[in-house]
Amino acid sequence: MVCDPRGAVLRRALMTEGGADHTPAPIREIITTVLTSGGAAFGVAHNHPSGSLDPSEADLATTHRLSEAAETVGLRFLDHVIVTDTAWRRIPHPSADPSHPAGP
After folding, report:
1. How far apart (Å, rounded) are the C-alpha atoms in residues 45 and 67?
2. Strand 76-83 to strand 88-90: parallel, antiparallel, or no bridges (unpaired)?
3. How confident is the model over 32-64, as pLDDT tens digits?
4. 3-class SS at 25?
5. Which residues of 1-20 are buried (b: 16+ CB within 10 A; e: fewer)?
6. Distance in angstroms (rounded) separating the CA atoms of residues 5 and 39
7. Is it the case that residue 86 has pLDDT exceeding 80?
8. pLDDT at 18
9. Which of 81, 82, 77, 83 lies closest to 96, judged by CA?
10. What are the Cα distances from residue 93, in Å, to 20, 49, 58, 63, 78?
């Protein structure tokens, strides 16, 4: 989701589709989409078909890479969320603002 400086959604974009066990996160394409859409902030979400809300090592690495990339180009990285059929969970990231508590 690409957002303006106030957090209003400007655009929703599907960045990748993958198999049942892994989908690479296209960091460059995500950042490019935010910038070319006039966004100031963004968040990403992906599903875990297994139903597990636990982030994988790849999820944690992607969150870290997105956080670094956003900081480099002056964007605000809002969230990386895992979604299952019944629940969701935020993946904490290094640049998380302590004044904004984590979700469930």
Report:
1. 14
2. antiparallel
3. 999 999 999 999 999 998 899 999 999 999 999
4. coil
5. bbbeeeeeeeeeeeeeeeee
6. 7
7. yes
8. 67
9. 77
10. 25, 22, 13, 6, 9
Which run of H or of E encompasses 29?
Answer: helix 27-36
d(CA 38, CA 10): 8
Q: Which residues lie across from 47 on neighbouring strands?
A: 83
63 vs 93, more confident = 63
- Helices 27-36 and 57-73: crossing angle, nearest 10°? 40
Distance in angstroms (rounded) separating the CA atoms of residues 6 and 39: 10
Q: How far is the C-alpha of 41 from the C-alpha of 2, rounded, in Å?
A: 6
Name the strands in the sheet holding 2-3, side by side, starting at the edge strand that comes first in the sequence. 9-11, 2-3, 41-47, 76-83, 88-90
The DSSP string of 33-97 is: HHHHTT-SEEEEEEE-TT---SPPHHHHHHHHHHHHHHHHHT-EEEEEEEE-SS-EEE---TT--
